[in-house]
Write a structure and sequence with these properties.
single chain, 444 residues, mainly beta, Methylamine Dehydrogenase, Chain H, five-stranded antiparallel sheet, four-stranded antiparallel sheet, 2% helix
Length: 444
């Protein structure tokens, strides 16, 4: 059955609207929500991709996440600093910064000196009111997944535990707001033998099953393939309909779980979810990323085969692999199993970010997007011309490895932002590109 039909059925007949509302909580801490002056748009020097070092570290490059503030269109990056074992948040400021080019960014607004170890596997998102939330993993002294920010408008929670008792270890969160502004995130739990995909969402109006004052509901969905950070789930929304991309536990194929009405789903541990195969031909190396493209969806991932380690973009329309799979480019060496991908929509078309590892000693950050006369992707059946354009975002200067960890978002105005790692220097980088403006030629 076509995914388009499935999504229509789910949305029109069994859609669950996550609960909305507000409850009293602690006031906001000093930081981006408390009157920080909005910075101007990031500067452009020359043409093409702009690249800056946001945090020079050391040891800040892993498990990062990027989101766009809908009110300012500015990028915010959540990440973990192994040097201080803390969750950090970076965003551009007009003055008083402590990182980035010329201290034009703030990197320490939510960091504080403590003896705990928390912040890996963070994920950030904004609701339509401009409130942000971050999910993350706490490593020590109490293992679990936590939340920091605004679960619903009018309510702020500071470093609250969401799930701390079900598993012996936690990993890989993916946080998103539903259309009604309610916080939710997918995460992985390890019971000592297997990894499991879970989903938590904030429930302010009644007692939930987990979290601070039992205001969160937590569900186990499915077993997942337990290798590396690439087991990361990817959560996306079509309005209030939640979808999670992950790797299945048997073969490592990419799957998507969709939230449905009670007892109508087929997922192993929750009948509230429908688990559907994305690509029957591919075992995935690295992370699967997901974007809603209503009434369809798009996913990006790497093929784990050493014979054809392709970067693949799959569209939810029924096609050659289950979905419609587009083999974008052979990335050369098999990607690290914790290598990440990104996918978004620009002008209604997919744009995807990935790592080219043809030279394992100099990995490249690249993007791919549809183009009639392209240089990669599947050929047009009539003209035989390639139908995608692959371009280098950061070459690593020819000597460094970049882009293994990445997170990409596209603004409503078409600005593409990619936060990524420089694995050689252990720094946090940002690349961005504004839409091209063509000046018409005037003949006299």
């Amino acid at each position: 059955m076509r995914l388009r039909v499935i999504l229509y059925f789910l949305l029109l007949t069994v859609l669950i609207s996550l609960p909305a509302g507000a409850s009293s909580a602690a006031g906001p801490e000093p930081g981006p929500d408390t009157g920080q002056a909005v910075a101007p748009l990031l500067p452009v020097t020359g043409v093409g991709w702009q690249k800056i070092t946001v945090d020079a570290g050391p040891n800040v490059e892993q498990t990062l996440s990027l989101a766009i503030n809908p009110l300012t269109q500015q990028p915010y990056i959540s990440y973990y600093s192994a040097a201080v074992k803390d969750l950090k948040l970076a965003f551009p400021v007009s003055s008083g910064g402590d990182c980035g080019p010329g201290n034009t960014w703030s990197c320490s607004s939510i960091q504080y000196v403590n003896s705990e170890d928390f912040g890996p596997y963070s994920s950030i998102d904004f609701n339509s009111a401009g409130n942000w939330g971050i999910s993350y993993v706490k490593m020590w002294p109490l293992t679990g997944v936590g939340f920091h920010g605004t679960p619903v408008s009018g309510n702020t929670q500071l470093y609250t535990g969401v799930e701390t008792s079900l598993y012996s270890a936690y990993a890989s969160t993916s946080f998103r707001y539903a259309a009604n502004g309610t916080a939710s995130f997918a995460y992985l739990g390890f019971d000592g033998i297997n990894f499991y995909l879970n989903f938590a969402y904030y429930n302010p109006l009644s007692s939930g099953t987990c979290g601070m004052s039992n205001h969160w509901d937590c569900e186990k969905i499915s077993k997942v393939y337990p290798v590396g950070l690439g087991t990361s789930p990817s959560l996306a929304y079509a309005y209030n309909f939640a979808m999670i991309a992950y790797r299945d536990s048997v073969y490592g194929h990419p799957y998507v779980a969709g939230r449905v009405a009670s007892n109508l789903g087929n997922c192993p541990f929750s009948a509230n979810w429908q688990c559907n195969l994305v690509d029957m031909n591919t075992v995935v190396a690295g992370g699967v990323s997901l974007v809603s493209n209503y009434p369809s969806a798009g996913a990006a991932y790497y093929d784990a085969s050493p014979l054809h380690p392709y970067f693949i973009v799959a569209d939810g329309k029924s096609g050659n692999c289950g979905w419609t799979c587009m083999y974008i480019e052979n990335v050369g060496a098999l990607p690290n199993d914790d290598a990440q991908t990104g996918i978004g929509l620009r002008n209604g078309k997919y744009i995807a970010a990935y790592t080219d590892r043809k030279n394992p000693n100099n990995t490249l950050l690249k993007v791919a997007y549809p183009e009639q006369d392209g240089n990669c992707g599947p050929p047009d059946p009539v003209t035989t011309r390639r139908t995608w354009r692959c371009e280098v975002v950061d070459s690593g200067g020819g000597t460094k490895n970049v882009g293994r960890f990445l997170s990409m978002r596209v603004t409503s105005g078409g600005v593409v932002y990619i936060a990524y790692s420089n694995d050689t220097d252990h720094t946090l980088k940002l690349a961005y590109r504004y839409p091209q403006v063509y000046i018409p030629l005037i003949r006299r």
